Structure formats: C-alpha cells, structure tokens
Amino acid sequence: MYGLTSQMRRAVVSVSSNIAEGFKRNSRKEKVQFYTMAYGSLSELESQIDISKNLHYLLESQYQTIIEAINEASRLLDGIIRATNRTHNDRFFSPAISVLLAVAISVFYIQYSIFPTAPAGAVSSVRLFFIPENSEVVAGDIIKSDIWVDTQGNTINAVDISVSYDSMVELLSAEKNDSILNLWVEEPSFSDTTRRAKFTGGRTGGFEGRGIIGQLYWRNENAGGKATLGFDESSVVLLNDGLGTPAELERRQSDYNILAKGEGLLNLSSASHPDENKWYNQPFVRLSWPTIEGAIYSYLVTRDPAQLPDDTLDEPVGNIKLSDLTDGVYYFKLKQKKLGEEGWSSVVSRQIKIDKTPPEFIEAKISRDSELVQNKYFASFAANDKASIARYEIIEGDSAPEPILQPPFILKNQDRSVAVTIRAIDAAGNYKDIIIPALTWWQRPSIILYVKIGLIVGLALIAAVIIIVIIRRKKSI
C-alpha cells in the first residue's frame, strides 16, 4: 500500500508542477510539452486508482468521485493543449488562464481526496489586513498599502479579494510585487467607477503563514481628512483541503489620517536604502530622523509588519546603523514621546528589502531545432531569485552584454566559434553567470559544411577518375 500511495503522490505532484511550469513558459511548443506531461501523469494516476479499487483500498463511492475529478481535469487539460496549439502568439490567451487554474484546483481536489494531509476544517479564521494599518500619512505623498493575509494555522490555495476604497483615495495602481500567489486568473485591477480593486489568483501547493497578496499605490492631496481601505464581503479565500472550502474571514479595515507636510509625523529616512520599494544588496543600513530636545524614542527592527515598538527608551537616537542583516524584508518602527507629554506619537515605519544572494539558474543551454527559429542556434534559460529577476544578459565572446527580458535568444554567432555567457541579474543587482563554451572546430557548422562539400567534391572527382579510367580501358581493348 505504501508503494502505491507514493506512486500516486508523485503522479499528483507531477500534474500540478507541470501545469505550473507550462504556464510560465513563453514558447508555445514548450507550453504544450509540459501540459502533455501533465496529461500523461493524469493517465498514470487513473491507472493507479484502478489498481487501488481492485485491491479494495477504495470504496466504490470514493472511486467514482476521484475518477470523475480525474476525467474533468483531463478534459480541461486537453482543451488547454488544443487551444495552445491553435494560438499563434507567444502569450497564452487570458480565458485559458482561468481554465488552467481550474485544472490545478481539480488536481488539488484529487490529491486531498486520496491523501488528506490538511485538517478537514479551518483551524481559525483567515485574516485579511493592510500594512501600514490605521496610520497617519502626508498629503501629496504616494502611499503604498500592502494587502496581507494571515492564515492563522490554515492552508490556503486560492483567493478572490475585492478591496474597497473611499472617495478620499486617489488610487494610482494595483500591483502584485512579492506576492505569495504564483497563478493569476487575471492581473490585479481597479475601477474608480465601482471604487474596487481586484486580486484573483492561486498558489500551487498551498500556503500557510503570513504573506503579501499585493499592493495599492494611492495618494490624497488634501490634508485634514481620513482615507479608508477595506475588504468587501464578497472576498473569498479557499482552503487547501481538497474541497475548495471557503475560509472564514476576518476582514480588517484601515483608516489613514491625512496630515499636512511637516505636521505630526516623524521624518524617517535612509541614506543607504533610500527607496523602500527597491531591493538592495547592502546589508548595513543607515537610518536617521530629526530629534527634539528632551524627547525620548522607542524603535525596533522586525520582519513582522504588524509588530510595534514598546514604551521603553531606545538609544542611540537620530542616526543609527543596523549591521549585517540577512536576506529578507524588514520593518523599522519608530515612535516619539515629547518632554511633558503623556502619550507617544504615531508609529512611523520604513521598509527595508535586502537580497545579497545571486540568482540560481534552473536551466541554461544552447539548442537548435529544425522546427524552431529556422533551425538557428538559440539560448534558452531560466533562473529563480528571492527578490525577482530584473533582466538577463547575453555575452557572445568579447562583445558587449545584450540585455534580454525573456528567452529564447537567437545567437548572432551561428558558427558557435565563441563562448556564450548567460547572465541573470536580480532586482538588487546581484548576478550569476553561466558560461557555455564554444564548439570545438570540427563541431562548428561552417567546418561541417566545408567537410560535406569537400566530401562531395572528393567523391565526384573519384567518380570522374574511375569513369575516365573505364572509358580509356574500353578504347584500348
């Protein structure tokens, strides 16, 4: 039984991972290749389910439920393969993305129907909230409000979140930077008519913990008011329980008091990491703020965006250095208490994003295929990074680096007579090189062509000599 269960687990994981991998590919041929592998794994899974039934490991009702799910997933996946083959651009058309997600969710259903590894019900409610939460902002500044989820012990795999914003919010964009989601039904969007922003997507394998769904960037030019962000009751988060069960939600509204420039808030800045939204490879952080005589300050450095400083005096003040932080996202929280005042000021927060680690290549190779790019040599590559891949560069021999956003890249030197360097550069400026050596002289296309021509000419000459010899012999007889 253990061996059969292991085989089924491998098949299920293969289906979902190949779907996800195919979704990320730009080449239509590669998409179909991965979707076909997923289809084959579904067929393998169906055979293993039949064996389980014949060995009486499954009840008839369980067998029918699982087979129906497999058949539905197979039907949807077959539709994706056929649709991809019919699509002549490199980007997969958007209606199929929702079908893709449906296939993935069907596979999750199969997996957890056979192997229930998650709790049958929710442990507690899933919390949706904003960071910063209930804070003060400056009129005219562009504000970034991160949309966070805290699963509180649950495992989730899909969200459909509608964020409401009132008339005090001039929404500029809805983004998905650093999101826990890796399958998007549609890009984040917003409408000033309905005053709603939408975030709809899934996470292969599920997610447990605290993480970012996306961001809203907004502003308000008028001091003295209050802006409000909230979550609609229509927002849904699905548990990764094999049933697509909607989680019970705790939706937290966030109010922002809008202050005039120079009013109330501490002016916290960083000379070493000036842009909060940018990744840096510098682990030493300088932070500074103007101090007031007689005032005391409390601050902390945390990875938890909701954690606040206590009421204990911290020193030094005004100019501090944080040393040798490891990779990740940090928050520096600061508050002030003036001499003679009872209460503390509002907490100001500054985000610090550090990534010192170079990207890791998943694949880097040079290929040639008679069905692709006129049988020319091309480089294909992919890399992962904790932050994000900013771009790739291709260096052929001693030539200048050529920036590339996405593979494939058709080589300019089709003779492969020089080494090719494929460089992945992340958002923090770290990079990793893969060097693919030049072909040896006898492997190069031009040499092979010359050899072929030489052989043909040589054979032709030999044939001509033989014919001449034969003719002369006939004449001499």
Description:
By secondary structure, this protein is of the alpha+beta class. The protein has helices at 2-24, 28-54, 60-86, 94-114, 445-476, and strands spanning 126-131, 135-138, 143-150, 156-165, 170-175, 183-184, 189-191, 196-207, 210-219, 226-231, 236-239, 249-251, 254-259, 279-280, 285-288, 296-302, 319-322, 328-337, 348-354, 360-367, 378-384, 389-396, 402-404, 409-410, 420-426, 431-436. It is extended. It has 4 domains: 2-114, IL-4 antagonist (De novo design) like domain (Four Helix Bundle (Hemerythrin (Met), subunit A), Up-down Bundle), CATH 1.20.120.660; 126-259, Immunoglobulin-like; 279-354, Immunoglobulin-like; 360-439, Immunoglobulin-like (Sandwich), CATH 2.60.40. Helix 1 runs antiparallel to helix 2, helix 1 (2-24) runs antiparallel to helix 4 (94-114) and helix 3 packs antiparallel against helix 4 (94-114). The chain has 5 helices and 26 strands. Strands 2, 4, 6, 7, 8, 10, 11 and 13 form an 8-stranded mixed sheet that branches.
